[in-house]
Automatic annotation (TrEMBL):
Keywords: Arginine metabolism, NAD, Oxidoreductase. The keyword Oxidoreductase applies. GO terms for biological process: L-arginine catabolic process. The active site is at residue 227. GO terms for molecular function: succinylglutamate-semialdehyde dehydrogenase activity. Transmembrane segments: none annotated. Belongs to the aldehyde dehydrogenase family. InterPro entries: Ald_DH/histidinol_DH, Ald_DH_C, Ald_DH_CS_CYS, Ald_DH_CS_GLU, Ald_DH_N, Aldehyde_DH_dom, SuccinylGlu_semiald_DH_AstD. This is N-succinylglutamate 5-semialdehyde dehydrogenase. It comes from the Bacteria.
């Protein structure tokens, strides 16, 4: 096995060093532990999850500092992420009871029961942009349901994933119920293809999601839940002069929060003939954005993208837009030499045949249209379907927008990246496979079993028998 590392994107310092995991051993350990874990009463599984939430809170500052260091995101944002990790437990307990709990009734005088069973051993593949929050959103409901989990963190954020798994151990989770399998792409492929796996839960790129979907196509016996990215539209329409600054703040948050490294970030701003004032306000506000290292003072709005390779991909996509004839409103620049710290960039691509791709960084494309019908057509001109937002308009216009939008998260006068863990989260098109996560994660972590249960033997009413 070859050793590899994760590094601080701003300093290059090594954050974690290790070797690729033995996938066979990881899955075997989870398989050995799963049966006993599933037989434990739900109340006991809940109690361990609740202890985990308390342990997360107790280690919150160290956890946040590690996430900030490994991803480069501002410390304030990493603290917010840790808070969502702890809060996920109570939300998952409520969702499990509501969506995958036990129900009893009667059908034609016969007692009827609905219960749920765990799938068995599930793999969780985590992303780098939220290395704790997003895999945690799969892991908590999977464990509550009685599954064992093999968790492969992103190869860019292994330390954050290992730290989170250690908090489960501290909370008393039995050995083998959550196994961390560190590794790079080959490890992920080996885990996804492992014959002893009962399913896989994934958050990450659309290309990987499509590959997983194809690989699982011949395995209907395995559950697959994927949530990928989006080429998300934000329509700004009928903005009153008094509301331009507020609207601009929503655009800036939608486009540039987390340096554009959220799957729900707005990639495309669509405006009508009266959009100049808003565009100017957005550009002026982008000029005020403080970009810097995670521990800088004053605190930055956004940090770097995750590494130099990610920065190079964003720069290549930007260069392609400019080469096509895009009108640069704010250029994409490296702000600190030798780091992946990028400036927020805005380009007008009106009338250009722009590729339908997610640029996972701080790049906003502006598209001018003649009327609202054209705005909706442009918004839906994508293979993706994760998030969409309308800023401005009245309730009637929003209802038109909601009805016509092809997205799983549809907001009004809120950023595209405003989603709550107490609601389902997912998209259509190539943004997912109709298995939304967050509050609905309970749905794919267990399968329903319907039962008719009579305490006594009663003769069946048979028709068509000879006397």
């Amino acid at each position: 096995m070859t050793s590899w590392t994760s590094t601080d994107p701003m300093t290059g310092d090594v954050v974690w060093q290790g070797e690729d995991a033995d996938v066979d051993a990881a899955v075997a350990a989870a398989r050995a532990a799963q049966g006993t874990w599933a037989l434990r009463p739900l109340a006991e599984r809940i109690a361990i999850a609740e202890r985990y939430a308390e342990v997360v809170k107790a280690h919150a500052e160290d956890f946040a500092a590690l996430i900030a260091r490994e991803t480069g995101k501002p410390l304030w944002e990493a603290r917010t992420e840790v808070g969502t990790v702890a809060a996920k437990v109570a939300i998952s307990i409520t969702a499990q009871a509501e969506r995958a709990g036990e129900r009893h009734g009667e059908a034609a005088g016969v007692p009827q029961a609905l219960r749920h069973k765990p799938h068995g051993v599930l793999a969780v593949l985590g992303p780098y942009n939220f290395p704790a929050h997003l895999p945690n959103g799969h892991i908590v409901p999977a464990l509550l349901a009685g599954n064992a989990v093999v968790f492969k963190p992103s190869e860019l954020t292994p330390a954050s994933g290992a730290f989170m798994a250690g908090l489960w151990q501290e909370a008393g989770l039995p050995e083998g119920v959550l196994v961390v399998a560190q590794g790079r792409a080959d490890t992920g492929r080996a885990l996804a293809a492992h014959p002893e796996l009962d399913g896989l839960l994934f958050t990450g790129s659309s290309n990987t999601g499509l590959a997983l979907h194809q690989a699982f196509a011949a395995r209907p016996d395995r559950i697959l839940a994927i949530e990928t990215g989006g080429n998300n539209p934000l329509i700004a329409w009928d903005i009153a002069e008094a509301d331009v600054e507020a609207a601009a703040s929503l655009v800036v948050q939608s486009a540039f929060l987390s340096a554009g490294q959220r799957c729900t970030c707005a990639r495309r701003l669509l405006v009508g003939p009266d959009g100049d004032a808003l565009i100017h306000a957005v550009a002026a506000m982008a000029d005020r954005i403080v970009a810097g290292g995670p521990f800088d003072e004053p605190a930055p709005f956004m940090g770097p993208v995750v590494d130099m390779n990610a920065a190079a991909r964003v720069e290549a996509a930007w260069a392609a837009l400019v080469a096509m004839g895009g009108n640069v409103l704010r250029p994409l620049q490296r702000l600190r030499e030798g780091t992946p710290l990028l400036s927020p960039a805005i380009v007008d691509v009106t009338g250009l045949a722009v590729p339908d791709e997610e640029i996972f960084g701080p790049v906003l494309q502006v598209i001018r249209v003649a009327d609202f019908e054209a705005a909706m057509a442009a918004a839906n001109a994508t293979r993706f379907g994760l998030a969409a937002s309308l800023i401005g308009g009245d309730e009637a216009l929003y209802r038109r927008f909601w009805a016509a939008s092809r997205a799983g998260v549809v907001n009004w006068n809120r950023p595209t990246n405003g989603a709550a863990s107490s609601a389902p989260f997912g998209g259509v098109g190539i943004s997912g496979n109709h298995r939304p996560s967050a509050y609905y994660a309970a749905d794919y972590c267990a399968w329903p079993v319907a039962s008719l249960e009579s305490p006594a033997i009663a003769a069946a009413a048979l028709t068509g028998l000879r006397g």
